[in-house]
């Protein structure tokens, strides 16, 4: 890697000559892992892009454990690291699901630095990931520099029960809305071209309410809504360093993630209402198979009981969001053995769409509305687990494809209700 000037100030560095690649690393109390991540970046650049001018940029979100020093030490003797200034933030008062307060500000700093350096490609990685390898750098950057792609998102190999909120709501709805089959639109890792980088910086997402939690998803939808080439890089397994004191309850997780998704609908309505189908994105690499996935144990009976309790306690609230026929279908779901518990795909899709409409119309306080979705999500998860447990990865993929098809088929329902919202409950 080329090295110029001091690592203490971006302003000094950005007067330097242009570079080909900027790798940005976001961190927050990641002293246990940031050194390995930066070392993997260093080795990946040296191994796969030795002839390219490159810089590593650290955007720390106020760590108290010495993370920046660990990052600097990992490059000592080979290159210096640029550090994006991190002004004080109050976002810590409400820890986002990605456990990184002020992340929108950090990402903006990385992208602005890459733009000022005239970078041809910019990559962003989370310093808390334990499984970053030098090969990740190649798989993310090469499609941008060699094949002319504008966005390269990661595709991770996950246990069938892992990432269920993305599988059950975020991915199928994102796909139906924007017509792009981007499997993991809310992960914090990506690579982008200089053209998309400039587009991101011009977007009006950075200072919107909820940017601390929604920025990953909003950038993905920004790319999907524009004339950009999008690909996915198979990066294998993603393990994140655990922070036990920062674990969020499910209600808060749903409020932040699904709230960000619903908020985006209002800002891109002219785009998603014109989309009528979806297209696959270009894959790069192959997901390895084997026994490397961590075991995940979920008892569907407990999920079903949580749904039944939620129905008894929240039914009256749901009537403000869901039409009577849906309430009747949910009542039927209350009875019967767990082994045959099924939530129909089309019913689930219309439930999610009705909640999006209720969010838009503020039929009740938005946080209360989103938290009331939790038992319904648990019902979907129980149904999904009962159906796919003991099945292979290919069968699970086919099952998810049917779910996504239902979201696409029910999209006219969302459009008609959005355009003529005389009463959500009718």
Structure description:
By secondary structure, the chain is an alpha/beta fold. It contains 17 helices and eight strands. An eight-stranded mixed beta sheet has the order 3-2-1-4-6-5-7-8, sandwiched between helices. It is globular. The chain starts with 9 loop residues before the first helix and ends in a 7-residue tail after the last helix.
Number of strands: 8
Q: What's the name of the CATH homologous superfamily of the largest domain?
A: Spore Coat Polysaccharide Biosynthesis Protein SpsA, Chain A
List segments where confidence is low: pLDDT < 50 over at least 5 consecutive residues.
Answer: 2-15
Count helical runs.
17
What is the element string, with H for helices and E for strands? HEHEHEHEHEHEHHEHHEHHHHHHH
Highest-level CATH class of the largest domain? Alpha Beta
Question: Beta-sheet strand percentage?
Answer: 5-15%
* Average pLDDT for all residues: 89
- Give the domain tally: 2
Write down the CATH topology of the largest domain.
Spore Coat Polysaccharide Biosynthesis Protein SpsA, Chain A
End-to-end Cα distance = 62 Å
Overall morphology: globular
Please render the helix and strand layout as text.
Layout: H1 10-13, E1 21-27, H2 34-48, E2 54-60, H3 67-75, E3 81-83, H4 103-116, E4 121-126, H5 134-145, E5 151-156, H6 164-178, E6 190-193, H7 194-202, H8 211-224, E7 230-236, H9 250-267, H10 269-272, E8 282-284, H11 300-318, H12 324-332, H13 345-361, H14 366-372, H15 374-388, H16 393-409, H17 411-419
Parallel strand pairs: 1-2, 1-4, 2-3, 5-7, 7-8
Antiparallel strand pairs: 4-6, 5-6
